[in-house]
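pinging the channel bc i need a second pair of eyes. not urgent but kinda urgent?? the chain im working w is below, pasted from the shared doc
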Amino acid sequence: YFNSLKTVNPKIKRYAKIADIIALQVKIVQNYSRTHRQLNSSDAFSGDELAYFSRVFSRLLDDCAETIDELITITTDGKLEMKDDERMKRIDQLYLAMQDKYTFSQSFSNDAKSLATSRIKEKTDVQTSRALQGIKNN
């Protein structure tokens, strides 16, 4: 009986949420790459601020990797002794956790890009105002 608990049911291995979890991780990585590129080229942030953004995303990517590692453990024969319903429940929990990570990734990225846009607009407005008032930029 205990040996059968170490074998993962093939139906569980084909559970759609497994692919969804992996797809969400890919989207998070793509979002990070795109955001990182945009923020670095925006010239709106200091080096410390860019380092902060990188640290936040790095922790997020580490969390994603842990989720994927756990998913692999759950779906690999011989790793854990679990009943099918326990495996499904844990996969569902991992799916919800990855959705939360994706939502955070989107929100954090959008906030950072919005801040960059705001700073660039402010800088442009200051330059325009100076030009209209005949003040030279230093």
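so Residues 84-133 form the longest helix (50 residues). and Residues 44 and 123 are 9 Å apart (CA to CA). — does that match what u expected or am i reading it wrong
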